[in-house]
Each structure stands twice: as C-alpha cells, then as structure tokens.
Amino acid sequence: MENQEQPKNFFQSATAKIIMVGLLTLVLLIPLEYVKSLITERAERQKDVVREINQKWGSNVYLYGPVLKIPYTINEETSTIDKATRKVTITTTSHTKYAYFFPDVLNGKINVETEKKHRNNYESVLFTSKMNFDGNYSIPNFSDKNIKDENIQWDKATVIVATNNIKGIKGEVTMTINGERYVFEPTNLGFESNEIAPRFKSKQTDNAALTTKNFNAKKVFSGKAMDFNFDISYKGSQQVSIVPIGKKTTATMTSNWYSPGFQGNFIPENKTITKDSFTAKWKISALNRPFVQHYFETLPNLNEYSFDVDFVIPVSEYQQSERATKYGFLVIGLTFLVFFLIQSISKINIHIFQYSMIGLALIMFYTLLISITEHSSFKLGYGSAGAAVVVMIGLYSISILKNKKFPIFITIALSALYTFIYVIIQLENYALLVGSIGLFLILGAVMYVSRKIDWSTTNG
What we know:
Shape: elongated
Transmembrane segments: 14-35, 327-346, 352-373, 380-400, 406-425, 430-450
Keywords: Membrane, Transmembrane, Transmembrane helix
Pfam families: CreD
Protein name: Cell envelope integrity protein CreD
Strand content: 25-35%
Largest sheet: 16 strands, mixed
Number of strands: 16
Organism: Flavobacterium litorale
C-alpha cells in the first residue's frame, strides 16, 4: 500500500497566518480608538481651562470706530380731516435721527504684548494691547438727505466706538479733538435700538458702545478738517480685530508673539516674523472695501470687513498627539508585516499571542505620549515614548526570534518609522507629499524583500 502525503493543516499555512494577523490588526483598532477618545477628552478639558482663563483675563478684542455721530431733526406732517366740518388739520411731528461719519484718514499703531498662563497641565496665550489712532474727519455733508442746516443739532455731536470685551479695557479711553481732550464712557445706546449691531466672530459677550460727551461740531470744524488722536488699551486673548473705516486706513502692529495668524478680509501688505516677534503693516483705501464713509439712521454691520490677527498656540500637544494616532494603523500594520516577513524568510514560528503582545506595546506608545507630553513638550514625549516602545519590542523580539540579527533590524526599522511619522507631523504644507513618497519607498522595500519568497511552501 502506497504512503499518501498528509494534507497540510490550513491553520499552519501562510494564508491563515496572514488572515489572523490582519484580523488582529483590525481588532487593535478598538483600543486605538479609545486612545483617540482620551486625547479628545483631554483636549476638550484644555479648551475649558483656556476658556476659563480667558474669561477672567479678557476675551478677543474687536474695534469698530471712532465714528462721528451727529443728530438731526426730521419734521413729518400728517393731515387729518374732520368728517363733520371737512376741516383739514396739519400736525407736525419732530423726530431725532442720527448721521454717522467715518474718518477720512485713520492711522493706527498697535502694540500687543503676550504672555503664557499655565494652569495644571494647560496653557493659554494672553495679551495686553495698546492702541493709538490718529486722523481726521472732513466737514460732514448732509446734502444726500436734503437736510437743512437749521435741522442739524451740531452742538450734540459725539464720537462713538463699537467694541466688545469692555471688561478687558484698561484705564481711560480718551480722544483728543483739535486739542481738547474727551473721555469715553460706556453706553447701551445702539445695541438696544439696533443703532450699532456688530456680530463678533467668537464670544458674543460684553458687547458695548463707548461714547464721548456732547460737543459742538460746527465750532470744532470751523471750516477745516477735524483732527483727532484716540487711545485705548485692552487685556485680551485669542484675537485682535479692527474694522478699517478710514477712507485711507493704515495700521502697524508689533508684538512679541512668534506665530501670528493673519485672518479676516485683509492681510498685511508687509510683515516680518522672527522667532520671538512680528511686525505687520496694513494699507487699506475706500476702494478696497464695499462700504461708504457716511450713514444715516443706522450703522451697518462691518465685522466681516475687519483685519484680524490670531494670538493662539499654533499646534497644541493634543493636536499633534491626535495626528500621531491617525498613523497608528500604519505603524501596527507595518510592524506586523516586518515580523511576518522575518518569520517567512527564517522559518521561525511566531504565535498569534506574540503578535498581540507586540500590538499592545505599539498601542502603549500613544498613552505614554499623551501622559508625558502633558508634563513636558510633544518632542520630549514623542522621543521618550518611542524609545521605550522600541526597546521593549526589541528585547521581546530577541526571545521570539532566537538571535540578535533580526531584533537589531526590527529596532532600526521601528526607530526609522517613528522618526518618519514625527517628521510628517511637524510638516504642514509638505506633509502629504513627504508621506506619500515615504509610503511608496516602504512599499518598494517590502516588494523587494518578499520577491523570492515561495508562498506555496511557506508554513510560518
């Protein structure tokens, strides 16, 4: 009787090994998702702490002004007819309206001094801003509305400023008009009557209008332009937004902040950014924006036409950790692939339990990364966590692979992989390009190494 060759056990075949390792990789995505949720939870906690710090110090800063406000009188006649006598009675009713005039020239000098505030493991960027504006108003023109001079209440003119973060205003807000000094005071006028209705980009609290006392505009102008000098200082956080209401607006902002974000409708014409400061200059004319220099009855909402500067930490540790976890599937998959190729080439059997231990060690990298980063920096956390995991897997692979040649290769490969991912995380504009090239090279290396493996005879 001829001896028959025993059929191979499917579970010992390379195909079964590939399936099991693939399923294990998918299973390990579950704890990886828990790690991602932990990062999200810690990031939200950071936002809450930052929000609390900012509320106590001062929120973002929005400035819309200074605007010259002059009341005028409108007389409305109404006719009533007596049905019995057919007599017509004309009643004249007077209403006070307001005209608003923007400066012809508005020059701003803004200095923003920032500092970082820490609470537990979290930090926020706060600032103190000193703003000085000078310029002039041309003689108000009421001809658009055919308003007679005797109906203009020149002696009740004021200057108003729409702003937010009134709690963060430091000291007096003053304006010098043709040599005479005026102090601004808060007023609710405008927000109640919809006279001023700016909608702020973030926290819509502490919205306010500031106004000077009445002055005689006719006397101030005296046939020439009205010069002014305006000062205001804030304690704030996150953002400075200014509406360029001048017919010709120039602004220069200097700060000790190293990573400004230029947002809004206008970007600086010139900017200089160093590792510990920046200077930015704007030059905006009336031709660059779709609003005119004077309004009657109501002021428009112009917040979308502001130029903004963000003062925030560019990429927080939690954002970088979250980006690192997005490459978790890649790290686990490539590490398992290296071990599988080694076992296929060397005929060393690696049990699925041993793959599981390696996978869990790779997951532990991310928990170590978060915990260490919270007490130091992302760079130190990433390096420490990566070194710990690489050493652990390297030592574990010595006992699995029974020699030192393959463990050394695994240690080098893992170190290169973590370094590659760190470089991608730090990049912004070229992250996709570098990542794509890197993955292409890794795929080429795997194809080269596995080109001579006979999968039909590989039993693992």
